[in-house]
Each structure stands twice: as structure tokens, then as C-alpha cells.
Amino acid sequence: MRIFIAIELPARIKSIPSHIKGELEVEEDNIKWVSTRNIHLTIKFLGECPKEDISEIADDLRQALSNCRSFWCKTREIGAFPNARRVKVLWLGVDKKFELRTIQQKINAALVGRGLKDEEKAFTPHITLARTRTAKAIDIERLNSKIKVDHLEDRFKVTHVTLFSSHLSPKGAEHKVLARINFPTRD
Questions:
Q1: Where do runs of H (alpha helix) occur along 15-116?
Q2: pLDDT score at 117
Q3: How confident is the model at residue 149 (pLDDT cuts 50, 70, 90)?
Q4: Which residues, including other chains, have CB under 8 Å from residue 92's CB and lie 6 or more apart?
Q5: 166 and which of 2, 11, 61, 148 could share a cystine (Cβ 3.0–4.6 Å)?
Q6: Residues 175, 185: Cα–Cα separation, whole Å
Q7: Is 187 among the domain residues?
Q8: Is residue 25 very low, low, confident or very high in pLDDT (cuts 50, 70, 90)?
Q9: Domain membership flag for residue 98
Q10: CA angle, 42 as apex, 157 and 115 as ends, to 5°?
Q11: What are phi and psi of 52, to 5 degrees?
């Protein structure tokens, strides 16, 4: 079973791509938008894991994140991987990078001991909006300036991380919640 750990997002954050689509100057057949139901902020992709390990992984996550506290996060500007001249992934940035990286590091530390490999790339907290079939240049600065700030910048509270399974099908990925690891709330 393919699994990953992510932060679930409220519906209003998931609707942001609808405000971007009309402003994006790219061939429609070259871009695949993430399904609204699948928009999330990935913390760690674990890949294939035996089904019988899921409960222990969830327990490891609860222990590793037991001293984390909930916090507010804000969406920011649109960006691209690997860069604006060769866009493969269009994403929405977020603030609170320190808090998100801390969560990701705690998860890595807990799961590396389980034999799951650590990330090779530096963690860049983001919300994937779309992927291109062929890398193309996109004027990200123009896109950010054209889209109203009130459509891009929104706050959401991070109160937990979610362990998901991901099943790939011809219709796209189907994500299923396996466990939610709640953070204590701040006073």
C-alpha cells in the first residue's frame, strides 16, 4: 500500500485553483490540475508499506509529534518546481516553514528507525495545484500579480497530520485516511 503523511486543508483553500485557472497562459492539454478532493500539504511520502505496519507507523507518529502544538498557517504566492522557466509542478506556497519543517524532521527521525529512508531533497512546504505533462515556461510573477491577493492568501489552522493511503487508477489518485495524529491546542 502506498502511503504518505500530509496536512488536510479546508475547502476554501482547496478552491484556490479555480481562481488561478483562468489566468494561466498554458495549453489546457499540457496541464493536469490536482483534483479538489486530493489537495493537501504533503509532509512526507513513504511509498509502499505493508498494510500490517500501518498501526505501528501511526503509533510512531503519535509519539514523535506528542509535543507539537497546533498553529495557524497562511497560503502565499504561486511558485513552480523546478523553476519558472521549466515548470513541472505549479504550487501554492505557505508561511510557517519553520513549524512545518520541524514536524517533517520529527517524522523523519521517527520513521528512519523503522527502515524508511530519509528525504534526499530539502523539504519545501507547498500545496501542489497542478502538474504539466511537458515542462514549459510560465510567467509566475505575472500570474501572482494578476490574481487577487484575497484569492491566494488565506489562513488555516494546522491541528493534526494525517496518514493517507494513495491508490493510483486511470481516473487519478484516490486518497483514504488511515489515521489522524492530533496536536494539543494552544491556550
A1: 16-20, 54-64, 97-112
A2: 67
A3: low
A4: 16, 75, 76, 77, 78, 79, 126, 127, 129, 152
A5: 2
A6: 26
A7: no
A8: low
A9: yes
A10: 125
A11: -70, -10
Please report where in the chains the cell 504518505 appears, as a residue: 4
Q: At 158, which CATH number? A: 3.90.1140.10
- Kindly report the pTM of this predicted structure: 0.90
Residues 6 or more apart whose CB falls under 8 angstroms from that of 81 comprise 87, 88, 89, 91, 124
At which residue does the C-alpha cell 509529534 appear? 65
Local confidence band at 80 (pLDDT 50, 70, 90 cut-offs)? very high
**Three-point CA angle 157, 163, 167, nearest 5°:** 120
In the sheet that holds 2-8, the strands lie side by side as 40-48, 2-8, 160-169, 172-182
Q: Distance between CA atoms of 126 and 159, rounded to whole angstroms?
A: 17
Q: What total of structural domains would you count in the chain?
A: 1
pLDDT at 89: 95
